Amino acid sequence: MLGLLAKPLAGTLLLVLPALLLERLLRLFDLLAGTGSTAASIARLLLYLLPYYLGLALPAALFLAVYAVVARLSQDHELDALQAMGFSLARLSRPFLVVGVLFAALSIVLYGYVQPLSRYAYRAALHSLTNAGWNATLVPGEFVRISRRLTVYVERRDAATGLLHGILVQQRGEDGSEVLTTARTGRLLVSPEESELQMELEEGQQITRFPNGKVSTLSFGNSAQTRAFVQRLPIFRVRGADEREMTLQELWSARTAPDPPVELRRLESELHGRLARAASLLLLPFLAMPMGLAAKRSRRSTAILLGALILVIYQQALQLMEALGDVGRVDPRLALWMLFLLFAAFSIGLFQHSNGHPHEGALDRLLARFDEAVEAVAGRFRRRRGGR
Prior knowledge:
By secondary structure, the protein is an alpha+beta fold. It has helices at 2-32, 39-75, 78-84, 89-92, 94-132, 248-255, 264-280, 284-294, 300-326, 332-356, 364-387, and strands at 143-147, 150-157, 164-172, 178-191, 196-209, 215-220, 225-228.
């Protein structure tokens, strides 16, 4: 059973996780297109987002993998043979339940510790990229606007030495003055004292136009002239201002703190919401196995659609209870765990019915109506296309 489960489990994770990351990747490209961010910076942001999307993919992968294994065994009549030999559905479900326990333990670490830290790291990195404005890249032949008042042009760059040739720097002051600097050569350097990126210019001229119309000219030869090109970024806030950035241990400790950083009801919602989601993975095999058995008596796509619909409704209900708990409309502890108990009763009830009546599923009538509805929609669509 574990061998049969491994392949669809890994396949689903490898399919769902990249699909989720691709959607966010497109959004990051759109967001950071104007900042000149490198591909390595965007890849780092995706790495920070990986725990979040892994948390979304784990329940889907576990449900679909158990469903696929049971549906295959059922359609090939191997499950009927095993049950005829005395193997009950409850006994056959033990390997899946063990995997559910392992996934629940993994999700506690993921939801409770990895996701909060990666969420803060992602926000800090995004803050750095969106506020930096310039990534220290000078493209030869193009005017690069480093800041609102500073523009740089470089004619060419020596790839071997990094030496810049044909440099033009335009800087406008807040008082209306303008400084235009040209140089034959130059380099980009890092100032270790001030941790700022600077440009060193050689063999050039500097023309300054003052607000009163006067102009001054300064020529310099081998003596270098240095001006700062990157301002220090504002320091990002410390972690913990948002309850979603706090680990399980920090959430638990903050509940009894005399001056908690976040309102108590928000701490309770976040803490119990994470625990309820982790515990829900224990129940997924109980839901997936009856769905897999029902696939023998109906279309597989219909059973998958119904199972996905149940999981989406349950997930949205958990988010709704958390939101209502945040604003003080409900007690988040009672609401979240009551919802978990309802989902547990539904899933275990389906499993018990399938264990006692393997040839008659509790959702057979509902799946049959789903089949009829899908067939009616498909038939209507075919008639419309045929009429055209």
